[in-house]
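go over both lines:
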Amino acid sequence: MAFLHGDRLRLIYNDAYGQLLGDRHPDAYGSPAGEVFGAAWDGPAGAAVREALHTGYVPRDQEWPAGDGTEPDPALPTRGLSAVRDGTGRIAGVLVVAAEPVPVAHRLQGLSELAEALAGTLTLDEVARVALRYGLSFTDVHQVAFGVDDGDDWRVVRRVRGDVLDDADERLPPVWRRIAADSGSPLAVAAGAGLARFTADGQPLRDAAQDRHDEKVRALAALPLRTPSLRGALTVGRHDQHPWSPAERALLTAAAKLVAQAAERARRFENQHGTAQLLQRSMLPENLPDDPRFRLAARYDPGVDGNAAGGDFYDAFALPGDRLAVVLGDVAGHDVRAAALMGQVRAALRALALADSAPTSVLTGLDRLVASLGAEARTDELFVTVAYAVLERDGTLTVSTAGHPPPLVRHAAGGADYLDVPAGTPLGLGGARRSVVARLRPGDTLLMFSDGVVERRGLDVGAGLEKVAATVAAASGGDPRTLCAVATSAVGGTTDDDVAVLAVEHATAPSRSAGMEIPAEPTAPGRVRHWMSAQLTAWNVPEQVIGAAVLCASELATNALLHAGTAARVQVDLSAERLLVAVSDSGTRGSVTRAHAETLSSRGRGLGLIEELSDAWGTDPAVRGSTVWFEIGLRASNGG
């Protein structure tokens, strides 16, 4: 508000109006309006103020356009005028109440929508997407950046108006970059000091500019994100000179507080989620045995509540006499107690197997362990099921189960059927343990899985088992990694339970393997291309397969670099039937989703390319991070 006093209409105003005056404040205080507003004072708005001073008449709710077609002065509003009279009734001046040009209701609606969107976020990636989208919802904003502390530096993600945004950008993790803790960038300064800073005109990002988009920014608002456990900042930039009005400052400050609260919740969730998953996966084997006779793969997916630890487990290890032990079990529950019990059962099983590998002996020993733990805890609610098998060099298979779904064998000659194994009672309940002997022929694949694969609400378990068998039998190949993914998705719908699958293929011929570590730097994709070309050429892989494999591996290395930001490993496995390539990082969590990319998009194409060039692809969670793999069949490539 401003009071234009006396015949010369000298300006007396509050701090909020001073913000509208920009650089003219504080010199404008007490100065005649004609001197402060210059040529604009001769326009319709100035005329309306003078008429109100002389006659007391103010047209109600009328807007005065700028007479010469130029933009009106924001500090000289065309509405909200009132003649002010003194004690004698004489007009002593004019009161001006300046309202924001954008309706307050509209801005409050945007803030309400921001709060609603943030309420549905669980991770910092999701909070960042919502915050960036909100910032660019303002017409004149050209770029928005969101950053949080990440130990010794800041982790920052930015979005620029004009970026081609598509479904891939909303589903892939944002591309974060790091800036030093002592960086002089406005984002780092606001985050470190916890103070907001508004620049109306200049080059606020000049010293920290990463490209031309930063160099073009003239007006910048830097808002700190401060909570008891998080530090960060949100910046909003424009390419034009812009004095940030009090209402805009208040709105952005309120938005920053909402974003900060959501970011703190997300950080707590990620920490808790990471601890639970690390506990879960640290009890699983980080690497499966490398055996030229048997190719192994495993997959573990947490249930709907990925924030809790579960009790599903798998293991595979060498036994004396050149034999292989494989096991998959399930401990009821989704908490730390279940995960701890799972760890005890798995460790005990391996110890028992190394002493006496006979399946009946191992399960009998586990019976006594679980019964003892139940007695110690004074509970009879410990529920543990397990399937355990021993593989001989020639493929002879001895299997025993304790209340667990029977193992499934996919035959190289076609079809798939379950082994006729006595189900037995869950561990801890005692009873006679029996085993069966079967034969895994070259090309056959054995699958063990937890009940989370087949159990769904409203679906009979028997129907779920039939679906898995039919889907596995119809799979195009018997590769263990592919069959793990096929079995996991065979029964539609969601499950609250964890899912674990272990697959063992009796190889028709020994495979060849090689691997390389790739650093977290821009040269990584190029190194992968060079190494893979040389390796596959040395193995006499068909040229067309080399080209497709090198291109797909380069895309996966690029994704690992962008979205995980960690060093990664490329593993290549070549058999007579197929080439399998896997890229593992230690930074991302969960599965990678194929997302549709628009024609002009620069992102989201890699997985589509892999889908086109490979015969199968998928993603597997690892002990730390994720593995994305693809498979290319060789017989078709050779015309066989």
